[in-house]
Amino acid sequence: MPTASVCIVTYNSAKDIESCLEAVLKQTFPVESIVVIDNASTDGTAERVTRYSKQVQFIANEVNNGFAGGQNQAIRQTRSDYVLVLNPDVTIEPNYLFEIISFMEQDKAVGSATGQLVFSSNKDVMDSAGLGMKRTRNVFDLGAGEPVSNWNSKQAVFGVSGAAAVYRTTMIRDIEFEGEFFDEQFFAYKEDVDVAWRAQTLGWKSYYFPSAKAVHHRGWKKGGRSSIPLFVRQHSYQNRFFTLLKNESIGWHSIVIGPYILATEVIKLGYIVLREPGLLHCWPTILRSFPKMLKKRRWVKTKAKQNKGKSKSI
Fold first, then answer.
1. Burial of 32 (0-12, 13-18, 19+ CB in 10 A)
2. Domains, the chain, ranges and CATH?
3. Chain-centre distance of CA 25, in angstroms?
4. For residue range 47-103, what is the model confidence (pLDDT) as tens digits?
5. Going along 11-134, which residue ranges are E strands?
6. pTM for the full model?
7. Are 27 and 97 in contact (CB under 8 A)?
């Protein structure tokens, strides 16, 4: 029987973490280990997690290591066949892991899968059915804001949201670069997009599976952009360039796709200059990161060619 672990990264998550852990402990699929990494919370999160010391491996960081760094830290503590990367503001139903892993076991090429995430404020409305990609290369949550009844069928998707993602450990090891599954230069936001794109490039499939259900108690995303902290918007903006630089292929399709991407970025830049000039402060970071991102790009493209050659020889 396959094994599974659950990895959670907390940051001032005191109001959510107990209900999250209680839901994990009620899983019908045996959970080999639960790892919680706390990124220097100041709201009593650590005290709440320590109540579960018999069931949870807890590591308290002295500094905020970001979502990407925290999840990598947690994943390194696991030895299971599957890893559920879970946000502390998500509560999963008892069959969440069972439904998804039973499906993934039928097809070894499926590297990631997610269930049906709904809003806590209205459980008849979808939060996410996985990730989709537009031709502008903007990635979005599939089904967000739509009736749940529209999303009752299993389907292949571009990728899965890091809110409640089940990853096959074989895939994690296959696509990680220098020991990092999530790119730690992303710190937070769009790291799941980068993983999804990298996984697709290297031949892994991703699925949405509606019989696995979860509730997402989103925080700042309920409001407009003004409710999103500046540092989060900065990471989102710069990570958009990182995902493109690392993953976008160059070929004949660039003639079609390129103008859409360029137009999107020009419009976005105009808006930022007029309305959110604080985001421009991340451009030095973007420029300094170019050499590292190009190195990661070369690794992905080289490995993709090698994988393709192996599949042909088989």
1. middle
2. 4-222 (3.90.550.10), 225-300 (no CATH)
3. 22
4. 999 999 999 999 999 999 999 999 999 999 999 999 999 999 999 999 999 999 999
5. 33-39, 57-61, 82-86, 90-92, 110-119, 126-128, 131-133
6. 0.92
7. yes
